[in-house]
């Protein structure tokens, strides 16, 4: 009986420590932000973005987007915004973004959430257009900085 009580006290103590450390963590500050506002309509696919802008270290850069669409009928203008994390060098931004980890999912409800490229850059992207769901191509989301 005493052994069980001691075990429950130990488990309760560990949970309290873990809960406290999670609550104490501040939200991560993004290294950059992205905005996708341009695109073209493709028959049978929906809205397919062509370009976006990256705001990084006080400067704005244009980039090309492949592999993202909005499939809803009646959406005439769609926008998406996002935060970029672990971007240490501008050159690391370009690449193919996929689900951020084996346990993560690229689609959460109707919004794409956490994606990561092969250089470890993480993109949290969401639709800024009410009622529009973002759809990610099977190959992933390809972002390429324009020169």
How does this model look, in words?
It is a single chain. The protein is an alpha+beta fold and 147 residues long. The protein has one domain. The chain is built from one helix and 14 strands. Strand 2 (39-42) and strand 3 form a beta hairpin. Mean pLDDT is 73; it is low at 15-24 and 102-110.
Topology:
Elements: H1 2-24, E1 32-36, E2 39-42, E3 46-49, E4 51-56, E5 59-66, E6 68-70, E7 80-85, E8 95-99, E9 107-108, E10 111-112, E11 114-116, E12 122-127, E13 134-136, E14 141-145
Antiparallel strand pairs: 1-4, 1-7, 2-3, 3-6, 4-5, 5-14, 6-13, 7-12, 8-11, 8-14, 9-10, 11-12
Largest sheet: 8 strands, antiparallel, barrel
- Provide the number of structural domains: 1
Q: Order of helices and strands, N to C?
A: HEEEEEEEEEEEEEE
Q: What percent of residues are in strands?
A: 35-45%
Low-confidence stretches: 15-24, 102-110
CA-based gyration radius:
20 Å
What shape does the CA trace take? globular
Widest sheet: strand order?
A: 1-4-5-14-8-11-12-7
The total of helices stands at 1
Share in helix: 10-25%
- How many strands? 14
- C-alpha end-to-end distance: 71 Å
Structural class: alpha+beta
Mean pLDDT: 73
Compact overview of the structure:
Helix content is 16%, strand content 42%. The chain has one helix at 2-24, and strands at residues 32-36, 39-42, 46-49, 51-56, 59-66, 68-70, 80-85, 95-99, 107-108, 111-112, 114-116, 122-127, 134-136, 141-145. The strands form 3 sheets. An 8-stranded antiparallel β-barrel has the order 1-4-5-14-8-11-12-7.
């Amino acid at each position: 009986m005493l052994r069980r009580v001691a075990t429950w006290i130990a488990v309760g103590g560990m949970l309290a420590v873990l809960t406290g450390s999670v609550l104490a963590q501040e939200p991560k500050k993004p290294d950059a932000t992205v905005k996708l506002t341009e695109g073209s309509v493709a028959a049978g696919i929906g809205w397919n973005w062509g370009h976006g802008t990256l705001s990084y270290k006080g400067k704005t850069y244009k980039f090309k987007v492949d592999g993202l669409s909005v499939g809803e009928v009646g959406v005439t203008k769609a926008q998406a915004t996002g935060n970029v994390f672990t971007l240490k060098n501008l050159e690391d931004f370009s690449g193919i973004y996929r689900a951020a980890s084996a346990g993560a999912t690229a689609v959460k409800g109707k919004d794409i959430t956490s994606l990561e490229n092969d250089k470890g850059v993480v993109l949290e992207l969401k639709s800024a257009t009410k009622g529009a769901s973002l759809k990610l191509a099977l190959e992933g989301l390809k972002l390429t900085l324009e020169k």
